[in-house]
Design goal:
Blueprint: E1 2-7, E2 10-12, E3 18-26, E4 30-39, E5 46-51, E6 58-59, E7 67-72, E8 77-82, E9 91-101, E10 104-109, E11 113-117
Parallel strand pairs: 2-11
Antiparallel strand pairs: 1-3, 3-8, 4-5, 4-9, 5-6, 7-8, 9-10, 9-11
């Protein structure tokens, strides 16, 4: 099976920084697209940042120039560096990956990690 585990969430003051990590483990052929989503209470889950298989990283306008997504293909990890955090960034952040297995390509989600930005 395939498992995604996020880490690095926590509480931070406005303007602070936080780094999230996601480790992909299990049995698979390759990891294609990866991304970070977030969901605040009462809101729909939204895409924060993503890296398609072999394309440039994309960001939501709300986090552009503040967040940086990266992946380490040798370690099967994806990270989200968050700078200049704002209260509106408060949400549960989920790691997402499109993973190719022998039977096909499937979308997997992590369990989520809470990010709270407050004074």
């Amino acid at each position: 099976q395939v498992q995604l585990v996020e880490s690095g969430g926590g509480s931070v003051q406005p303007g602070g920084s936080l780094s999230l990590s996601c480790a992909v483990s299990g049995s698979f052929v390759s990891i294609n697209a990866v991304g970070w989503y977030r969901q605040a209470p009462g809101n729909e889950r939204e895409l924060v940042a993503s890296i398609p298989s072999d394309r440039r990283a994309k960001y939501a306008e709300s986090v552009k120039d503040r967040f940086t997504i990266s992946r380490d293909n040798t370690k099967n990890t994806v990270s989200l560096e968050m700078n200049g955090l704002k209260p509106e960034d408060t949400a549960v952040y989920y790691c997402n990956a499109d993973v190719r297995r022998w039977s096909g390509t499937y979308t997997y989600w992590g369990q989520g990690t809470q990010v709270t930005v407050s004074s």
